Amino acid sequence: MKLKTTHTFFILLVCFLSSAQVDVAKQCKKAKYDAQQSRLKAKEFTNDKKLALSLYKAEFNFLLKAEGICENYSNKGLKLFYRSFSSIKKIEKDKVLRAKYTDSILSVYERANAKGVQIDSMFFGMAATWYTRSSAPDYFKADVQFQKAQSWSKFKLSDYNTQVYYKNLYNLYVKTDRTDNELKKRLISEYFRLSTAISDNKLKPKSQMFISQIFNNVVRSCEDILPELAGYLKTLPQQQDVKINSLNNFIDLLDQKKCSDSPEYEILIDTLLKVDRSVNSVIAKAKLLYAKGKNNEALDMLNEAKTLEITDSTLLEKINKKIAGIKLENVRNQYNNKSYKKAYSLGKALTGSIRAEGL
Q1: Per-state percent for the chain, helix, strand, coil, to nearest 5
Q2: What are the residues whose beta carbons fall under 8 Å from the beta carbon of 178, sequence distance 6 or more?
């Protein structure tokens, strides 16, 4: 009798569990259906943004319900969430509410990770941005996702992801009260890497300006820059116009940081001259030679600059003025060194308004 009772109980239990599974499957299907219908209705009200927004939010909530009920959650579910979230984001103007929905999709993303879902690599960059825009930004988690995104074979650099990535790295550094030297080093090395990448990918000048502004808030001295720059001089782009742009950017940077007396600065100038012997690069070399006290060599470079195509009359006037100034300085140097005959000879060779000063 006892065996029969046990057998009956087992049959009832199996029937109950089977019924429960069928019920869960129905609820899952119903939640997905309701989400789909909400989206279809929202598309009917494109002229009524308020109603469309409420329907997209309903879709999002039904997707949350489905996530909690349905088994075998997959990338497809995550893509449906992203589609719904994108629709809400386009219409919702309230920053607080936008942040709350960002929090929600981040929770979905994290639960998918926790369940062992093989997340599609396309989501790494998105998740990185979500972490920066949530109600409580997590710069560390964002950085992890940014790095995963950049290692994806289909990753494509853009003005947007370049700026968001570098700004997040800076925010992470600031959060340490600027005491994390490893993050500082990374900000410097990433600046050079991104500067090259911006040129390589022909991004807009605003991206270079954006990361340069941040970089200037981090780096104050040559000692910070030069060790990192040396490595990047060995990995300059091969495409000539891109290489020229990168070299000019680095030269401008060292000028700003007053590093023009460094060996690296001279290497940059000489490298630029090899690939672009233009008026600007020749003048840059002349300035360097003059700063090193090599006046005659500087004069040679300035005279060479005059033989190149110059469309700006003001620039030509400046070159002539600089040549005259250096020649007059040579006269005075000879005079101060008591080489009076040499000073007189150089003075006689002067022309124009400075001739009287040289004699």
Answers
A1: 80, 0, 20
A2: 184, 218
d(CA 212, CA 249): 10
* Residues 6+ away with beta carbon under 8 Å from 337: none
pLDDT, averaged in runs of 10, over the chain (359 residues): 52 46 82 95 92 96 92 83 96 95 96 90 95 96 96 93 97 93 91 89 93 91 83 79 85 88 91 92 90 89 88 86 79 66 62 52
- In the block, tokens 């990753």 appear at 155
Task: Kindly state the DSSP code that residue 201 receives in the 8-state scheme.
Answer: T
How many Å apart are CA 289 and CA 297, to the nearest integer? 7
Structure tokens at 204: 């807009």
Instruction: Please state, in angstroms and rounded to a whole number, the distance separating the CA atoms of residues 300 and 283.
Output: 10
Three-state DSSP class for residue 116: coil
Q: What are phi and psi of 151, to 5 degrees?
A: -90, -5
Structure tokens at 238: 């091969």
